[in-house]
Design a protein that fits this description.
Chitinase A, domain 3, 18 strands, elongated, EC 5.2.1.8, rotamase, six-stranded antiparallel beta sheet, mainly beta
């Protein structure tokens, strides 16, 4: 029998959530279908499809200021292309996007047929009522409810070099572009979004455009900054001044607390964390029982991204990190029932950390 060991990170599940982009992504959930006609596998049909896919397609014109919803038009006599085209319409002056960086972006993606619906539009996110009508899953990330006309802007959270719902073909070109830029990526739907293209109604030869505003670039090796407070009575001691896993010292000889304990060690001045956002964090976790580290984001190359307040992480994180602020460093002591559970008598542990009180130090780098 193959034994599947759950991850030691504080996720309940390894499956990708549609909320991972912090917006409803029609691209991977819609099932528009396509009228493909004869679906035979003859060489002639394959050759025809390949020929249509490589046929020149008209390039759209994108207008509008950075920070505002772009307008996309295909003028008469538009220039054509048979290869992907990347254009920087406005170049920002912020830090340059590097491999593995996290990005906060505004995004509009659309096919170039007449009256084509948006695939993704963070400037005009669907309401909860829309999502229920469409029966889509994973809408948690939008944080939108019906009737929120004055809602705060919605953004997408991306990590470079990781296929995180959006294919690499439509995110890799952002590497090397400065924060504050507006970047347009146009290409054949089959090339940019792969096999998904047919599932959402694209035909061979159809093209698609992605317009990004790069709002924030987040270094995956960054940390919370500021003077760190001393740990409170009965709380573990923390040393976390270097870009490495925090050193956490559990009080010697003390029994673990029965309830969640928390303390903000560094107070950030960023936005308040809200339920259903994507949290970008550095974290280190140790066991109260012996003080041994069981996991850290630093062991995985830097910051990690998790949905918060949506049941995608252990309950102790959901209950404590919602309401904190970007820039905070938070010390958490989480009993088993709010972590990986308590093992019933006579049963095998469902998780290697079941029955353990866990101690975390979490730096909140962004909430998107």
């Amino acid at each position: 029998m193959i034994s599947i060991k759950r991850p030691t990170r504080p996720t309940r599940t390894a499956r990708r959530l549609a909320a991972a982009l912090a917006v409803p992504v029609l691209l991977l959930t819609a099932a528009c279908g396509s009228d493909s006609g004869n679906s035979g596998n003859s060489a002639d049909a394959e050759e025809t499809q390949e020929s249509e896919s490589n046929a020149p397609w008209p390039l759209a014109t994108v207008t509008g200021a950075v920070g505002e919803e772009p307008a996309i038009e295909v003028p008469d006599g538009a220039e054509t292309s048979s290869e992907t085209v990347v254009t920087v319409l406005e170049e920002g002056d912020g830090p340059t996007v590097a491999e593995n960086d996290y990005l906060r972006v505004s995004l509009l993606a659309r096919g170039l047929k007449e009256d084509e619906e948006d695939l993704v539009n963070t400037w005009s996110p669907r309401t909860a009522e829309d999502q229920q009508t469409e029966g889509s899953e994973g809408s948690e990330g939008s944080g939108e409810t019906a009737g929120q006309e004055d809602a705060e802007p919605v953004y997408a959270a991306l990590q470079m070099g990781k296929e995180d719902l959006l294919p690499l073909a439509v995110t890799d070109p952002l590497v090397g572009k400065p924060e504050g830029s507006r970047v347009v990526i146009q290409g054949a739907a089959s090339e940019l979004i792969g096999a998904v293209a047919e599932n959402v109604g694209f035909q061979p030869g159809d093209s698609v455009v992605f317009v990004y505003d790069i709002v924030t670039v987040i270094d995956p090796l960054s940390m919370a900054e500021g003077e760190q407070a001393a740990a409170g009575p009965g709380m573990p001691e923390v040393q976390a001044g270097e870009p490495e896993a925090a050193s956490i010292t559990v009080p010697e000889g003390e029994e673990p607390p029965a309830e969640i304990q928390q303390q903000v060690l560094i107070e950030g001045d960023g936005a308040e964390v809200k339920a259903n956002q994507q949290l970008i964090v550095q974290y280190t976790g140790v066991k109260w029982s012996d003080g041994e580290k069981f996991d850290s984001s630093w062991d995985h190359g830097g910051a990690s991204k998790f949905p918060i307040g949506a049941g995608g992480v252990i309950a102790g994180w959901d209950e404590t990190l919602v309401g904190k602020h970007v820039g905070d460093r938070v010390l958490l002591v989480i009993p088993p029932e709010k972590a990986y559970g308590v093992t019933e008598e006579g049963a095998e542990p469902a998780h290697e950390l079941a029955d353990q009180t866990l101690v975390f130090v979490v730096d909140i780098l962004d909430a998107i």
